Amino acid sequence: MTDAAYLLVHGNREYLLEPGTEFGTDLGVLDIPEDVAAGDSVETHLGTVFEVRELRGPDLFDHLERTGAPMMPRDIGLVMGLTGVSAGDRVLDAGTGTGILSAHLGRVGADVTTYEIDAEFAAVARENMTVAGVDEHVEVRTGDLTEELDTLAESDPFDVLTLDTGDAPAVVERATDLLVSGGHLAVYSPFVEGTREVVLAAREAGLTEVETLETIQREMDFSDRGSRPSTGGVGHTGYLVIARAP
């Protein structure tokens, strides 16, 4: 990993800062030394003490620069758990966006090639990979994955294919050309119509173990009256299709 940014924490205040930078807050100016390390303390010019913490996986969702709605942590966990992605795996991804999924994959040691069609989004994602300390593991390419399928199919196959794009069915049709035998496909979609198209494409392509999940999570409320699921929201985020290359 390259040198990543650190979290500076005081109470409920958190700032994501890089060594050698200066940042002004209402609690004073933070001057971050070049040799700062997790566990250190840094004082503002007004004497307020901030604790320096290493950036952890869950912090990525809160602190990386966003270019849209990033994949939720619960969805990322399902993708990683159901595909079994691990260190040394080669991952092909499309729909980089903010890069939250790619960053998590890079943090477990997978080597990720991710495509983002929007050049500005891709530039932000590259910066986010540096902040997350995974730019040695994650290559962000600007372009449309569907235009590179023939070239990629002639290269070494990938262990995992992850997609979060509207044209995912067109890529799924070529999944067996892209994946190693037994490799996994994971497709996230916010709409059930797109999910159905992915499932049909996966079956037509001869993929096995095709499984479709709605990703949903409910918080629990605890009070003197009793305990129950929160009524504050249904916790739905989208749909996830998992399949495997024969």
UniProtKB/TrEMBL annotation:
Record-linked InterPro entries: rRNA_Ade_Mease_Trfase_CS, SAM-dependent_MTases_sf, TRM61_C, tRNA_MeTrfase_Gcd14
UniProt-listed Enzyme Commission number(s): 2.1.1.219, 2.1.1.220
GO CC, any one term: tRNA (m1A) methyltransferase complex
Protein keywords: Methyltransferase, S-adenosyl-L-methionine, Transferase, tRNA processing
Residue ranges of domain tRNA (adenine(58)-N(1))-methyltransferase catalytic subunit TRM61 C-terminal in the record: 74-221
GO molecular function: rRNA (adenine-N6,N6-)-dimethyltransferase activity; tRNA (adenine(57)-N1)/(adenine(58)-N1)-methyltransferase activity; tRNA (adenine(58)-N1)-methyltransferase activity
Gene3D superfamilies linked: Vaccinia Virus protein VP39
An example Gene Ontology biological process: tRNA methylation
The UniProt record lists the keyword Transferase: yes
TM spans (from-to): none
Name by which UniProt lists this protein: tRNA (Adenine57-N1/adenine58-N1)-methyltransferase
